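Both lines are retained for reference:
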Amino acid sequence: MATAEDYATWIVRNQNKKGTPEFRTVVSAYLQAKAEEQEDKDKNVGSRFMSGLESMISSGLTAFESLSDAEKAALDATERNRKRIEKYGEGANLEKLGRAYDESGVLGAAGEIGTSIPGAIAEQVPQMGATMAGAAAGSALGAALAPVS
């Protein structure tokens, strides 16, 4: 089966066929393939973990950059977020849940929730890990500097 990239290449190379049924068919196939590839990214636990990691790193970078130029830091953060979503997919969100409900009712929404939960948890693992590491380091440092007798 052709990928979205294959269809895109065909579209670019066949601009002279624009408006023909064949061109419209390929554009439709491209849009479908792109949507399926995005859906695959959204449900992949590894992608969700990496997305969470990049998001956490980006937040720290934005905080540091904002010390010198807050507006530029915000613009850079927006661009990093756009690239992260493009790379790893959107992840779980209420819009998808609403679409699933509209298209398939309660069972569709329940299915969307069930498939989104593992990815949503994986996306939070980097933040949870950093929090736990910070707590452990603080506990160890506190015990060393001010032991309780």
Remarks:
- Helices lie at 4-13, 21-43, 45-65, 70-88, 94-145.
- The two ends are 69 Å apart (CA to CA).
- The longest helix spans residues 94-145.
